[in-house]
Amino acid sequence: MLGTLFNVLTVIVGSTIGLLIRNKLPQRYVVIVFQALGLFTLFLGMQMAFKTEGNLLLMVFSLVIGSILGEALNLEQRFQNFGESLKKRFTKGEGNEKFTEGLVTSFLLFCIGPMAILGSIQEGLGLSSELLYTKSIMDGFSSTALAAAMGIGVLFSAIPLLLFQGGITLLADLLAPYLTESIINELSAVGGLMLLALGFNILEIKQLKVLNMLPSLVVIVLLHLAF
What is 106-140 written as a DSSP string? Predict the structure, then answer.
C-alpha cells in the first residue's frame, strides 16, 4: 500500500500548504480559485464521461438505480454527519464553514476516476505503484488549491482516501478479473457524470446529492457484466 500511503501524504502536505496560503489570501482570490476549481471539475467530468463505449442505456440505468440506492441508504446525510463530527472534534473557531463541503468535494475528486481504481488494483496485485505515484503528485497540487478555497476539510479527506484506495488494494485479487478495460471505461464515464454534478455544486449552479449517486459505480459494473 505504499502508493496509497504516498497519496495520503501528498494530500496532507498539499492541504497544509493551501491552508497557509488561505490565511494570507484576500477573499476575492479565494473566490476566484473556487470558481477555477469548479470549471476544472466540469472539464474533467466531461472528459471522463466521453470514455463511454456507447452504452448509454446502461449509464442511465446505473445512475438511476444507483441514485435510488444511495437515497435509500441516505449516504449524503451520513457523510455530512461524519464531516460534522470531525469538524466538532478537531476544529475550533471561525473559518470552518466549508469544512464538510471541502471534505466531500476533495474525496470525490481524489477517488472517482480510473487512476484511483486501476492504480490501487495494480498495486494490490504487486504489478506497479507508478500510476498511484503519478496520481499522488496531481492530488498534491489539487489539494493545495482546494484547501486554499475550502479550508481544513480538504486535509481530512485523506481519511476516506486511505480507506477507499486501501480497500481496493486489499481486494485487488477479487476485483481484478471483473474490471476489464471496457468496464473501466464505463466506470470512468459514470464517474465523469458525477464529477459534472460536483462541478455544478462547486459553482453553486445547482446543489445535487452527488454522494447518493456513489452506488452507481457498483451498479454499472454489475449491469455491464450482466449484459
Answer: HHHHHHSSHHHHHHHHHHHTTS-SHHHHHHHHHHH
**Residue 82, C-alpha cell as written in the block:** 461524519
- Domain coordinates of the chain in residue numbers? 2-226
Amino acid sitting at position 57: L
d(CA 213, CA 94): 31
What does the block give as the cell for 9?
501524504
Quote the pTM value: 0.85
Quick one: how many helices (H) and strands (E) in the chain? 12, 0
Q: What is the C-alpha to C-alpha distance for residues 140 and 72, in angstroms, rounded to an integer?
A: 34
- Which ranges of the chain have pLDDT less than 50? none
User: What's the CA gap between 129 and 1, in Å, rounded?
Assistant: 9
3-state class of 135 per DSSP? helix
Q: List phi, psi (to 5°) of 206.
A: -160, 130
